[in-house]
From TrEMBL:
HAMAP family, A to Z: SelA (MF_00423)
Biological role: Converts seryl-tRNA(Sec) to selenocysteinyl-tRNA(Sec) required for selenoprotein biosynthesis.
Organism (species): Nocardioides aquiterrae
Cofactor: pyridoxal 5'-phosphate
Name of the protein in its database record: L-seryl-tRNA(Sec) selenium transferase
Pathway info: Aminoacyl-tRNA biosynthesis; selenocysteinyl-tRNA(Sec) biosynthesis; selenocysteinyl-tRNA(Sec) from L-seryl-tRNA(Sec) (bacterial route): step 1/1
Residues with PTM N6-(pyridoxal phosphate)lysine: K278
SUPFAM superfamilies given in the database record: PLP-dependent transferases
Family: Belongs to the SelA family.
Coiled coil region boundaries: none
PANTHER family noted in UniProt: L-SERYL-TRNA(SEC) SELENIUM TRANSFERASE (PTHR32328:SF0)
Compartments reported by the entry: Cytoplasm
């Protein structure tokens, strides 16, 4: 039969030579593209794909980039969304990452051509951002920062911590278990809701390495509560280590209860640990700030090598600290009336409704603090198609409506959002 698809099936090489398919092979690797071509040609032979559509079918089955990660528009209103990779990087940080991806002088003094100290730009920027810190160091994440402190200062010894600060961060990760896994004995003081200076005084002794304060960054205890400020704990005569979690370097007017590194150091903390990808708005990393000699002893500890950050992180961190405001900072600086103006424009284009809404910082800090925002309310039936679109759009369903919250959507993505909703609705 002249119309038998088996006879009209193109050769693998011919499909691979198609300019668009060849371009995909350059981006994604020839082996990967070829395996898709082979699969498509099988379908041509079986008659489920028309021979003239082979190249287009191959392209439709290939991802846009050589990563299975998909870009998402965060319309949840949760500024630091753990499941969406926490802080999105600024354009300046992305450019810095691109630059650092090639060979770069991360550990070379180009003046002498010899080995130089690693990451001086990022560490200098961090030190400049927090002048109260005598020394600074950067590791892989907040948990790594705390692990290094525990390992270097308290292995085989005791750490005193309030019962109300035995925090689980998420996905079953618990700070007390992390400390115990480093060979630290925990000496818990106080009750879930209250702890006094006298509790700490009774617990410290020769075996105590340091007193630890952990910020409850994802829950709030209200009512009959009390805790001991850092300024009083310093009177115990031991190092006070404070895990502030969110990575705010200085007080933020919109988040008055969120601890920041500068204030905690000024209160007398010896060391502060924090994450880089929460309220600081940078790449995943862990910050260590505090007394110069202590920080230097951490940096020199053998375990520090296992927690070392790569050059991409150093580049992104420096750009976050010295460049234009990060998307997280920009979200926190938005005015609800501006967000409402955008919501109205988008709603008008889409036939939805603009509504006032409340965003949140999210897992990154400031639990329970509402952030006034505005959203476009649409039918919840669109939620799945929007999530599966390209780019994916993730909102949240509330009271039977899908809310696309604009607090976390940069204004330059408004058109992208409109287009995504139109596609999802068809
Ligand atoms: C988030 C957080 C951590 C863990 O930091 P990672 O960067 O996720 O490792 C530790 N302590 C507190 C108080 C936190 O909020």
């Amino acid at each position: 039969m002249p119309d038998d698809p088996r006879r009209r099936t193109p050769r693998t090489d011919a499909v691979l030579a198609d300019p668009a398919v060849a371009g995909a092979a350059e981006r994604l690797g020839r082996a990967r593209v070829k395996s898709v071509v082979v699969a498509v040609l099988d379908d041509v032979r079986s008659g489920s794909v028309d021979p003239s559509d082979a190249a287009a079918e191959v392209l439709s089955r290939l991802p846009a980039a050589a990563t299975s990660l998909r870009p998402v528009v965060n319309a949840t209103g949760v500024v630091v969304h753990t499941n969406l990779g926490r802080a999105p990087l600024s354009a300046a940080a992305v450019a810095a990452v691109r630059l650092a991806a090639g060979p770069t002088d991360v550990e070379m003094d180009l003046g002498t051509g010899r080995r130089g100290p690693r990451g001086t730009g990022a560490l200098g920027a961090l030190a400049a951002a927090v002048p109260d810190a005598g020394g600074v160091h950067v590791v892989n994440n907040g948990a790594a920062a705390l692990s290094l402190v525990a390992c270097a200062l308290a292995q085989g010894r005791e750490v005193v911590i309030a019962r109300g600060e035995l925090v689980e961060i998420g996905d079953g990760f618990r700070i007390p278990e992390l400390l115990e896994s480093m060979g630290v004995r925990l000496r818990e003081v106080g009750t879930t809701n209250r702890v006094r200076l006298a509790d700490y005084e009774a617990a410290v002794g020769p075996a105590t390495a340091f007193v630890l304060k952990v910020h409850p960054s994802n829950f709030r205890v209200e009512g009959f509560t009390s805790s001991v400020p850092v300024s009083e704990l310093t009177g115990l005569g031991l190092p006070v280590v404070v895990d502030i979690g969110s990575g705010l370097l200085a007080p933020h007017p919109r988040l008055p209860d969120e601890p920041d590194a500068a204030s905690v150091l000024r209160e007398g903390a010896s060391l502060v640990t924090a994450s880089g990808d929460k309220l600081l708005g940078g790449p995943q990393c862990g910050l260590l700030l505090g007394e110069a000699a202590l920080v230097e002893s951490l940096r020199r500890h053998p375990f520090a090598r296992a927690l070392r950050v790569d050059k991409l992180t150093l580049a992104a961190l420096e750009a976050t600290l010295t460049g234009p405001p990060s998307p997280v900072a920009a979200a926190l600086a938005t005015r609800p009336e501006d967000l409402m103006g955008r919501a109205r424009r988008i709603a008008e284009e889409l036939g939805g409704v603009a509504v006032a809404s409340e965003g949140r910082v999210g897992g990154g800090g400031a639990p329970g603090v509402p952030l006034a925002s505005a959203a476009v309310a649409l039918s919840p039936d669109l939620a799945k198609a929007l999530r599966l679109g390209d780019p994916s759009v993730v909102g949240h369903v509330h009271d039977g409506r899908l809310l696309l919250d604009l607090l976390t959507v940069p204004a330059e993505l408004d058109d992208v959002l409109v287009e995504a909703v139109r596609r999802a609705a068809t």
